[in-house]
């Protein structure tokens, strides 16, 4: 394991990285929030279906 070589690779990546603009950040946050909301809705629908069908619910 060559630690100085790995540290130089990490340093190179950090030098290339930059903070996103506000519009890019807000678009990413909106898409991530929509994905979380979609997964939650799907889970809630599955929960409702399992409650309606006898023998499959909690």
From TrEMBL:
Q: What does this protein do?
A: Essential subunit of the Sec protein translocation channel SecYEG. Clamps together the 2 halves of SecY. May contact the channel plug during translocation.
Q: Provide this UniProt record's keywords sorted from A to Z.
A: Cell membrane, Membrane, Protein transport, Translocation, Transmembrane, Transmembrane helix, Transport
Fill in the subunit field for this protein.
Component of the Sec protein translocase complex. Heterotrimer consisting of SecY (alpha), SecG (beta) and SecE (gamma) subunits. The heterotrimers can form oligomers, although 1 heterotrimer is thought to be able to translocate proteins. Interacts with the ribosome. May interact with SecDF, and other proteins may be involved.
Tell me which family the UniProt entry assigns to this protein: Belongs to the SecE/SEC61-gamma family.
Note the InterPro entries from the entry.
Answer: Prot_translocase_SecE_dom_sf, Translocase_Sec61-g, Translocase_SecE/Sec61-g
Output this protein's name.
Protein translocase subunit SecE
Q: Origin, by domain of life?
A: Archaea
Transmembrane segments annotated in the record for this chain: 28-53
Bilayer topology = Single-pass membrane protein
- What are this entry's molecular-function GO terms? protein transmembrane transporter activity
UniProt GO cellular component terms: endomembrane system; plasma membrane
Please cite one Gene Ontology biological process associated with this protein: protein targeting
Location relative to the cell: Cell membrane; Endomembrane system
């Amino acid at each position: 394991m060559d630690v100085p070589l790995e540290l130089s690779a990490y340093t190179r990546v950090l030098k290339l990285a930059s903070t996103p603009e506000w519009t890019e950040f807000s678009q990413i946050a909106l898409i991530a929030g929509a994905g979380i909301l979609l997964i939650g809705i799907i889970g809630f629908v599955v929960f409702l279906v399992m409650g309606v069908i006898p023998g499959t619910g909690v």
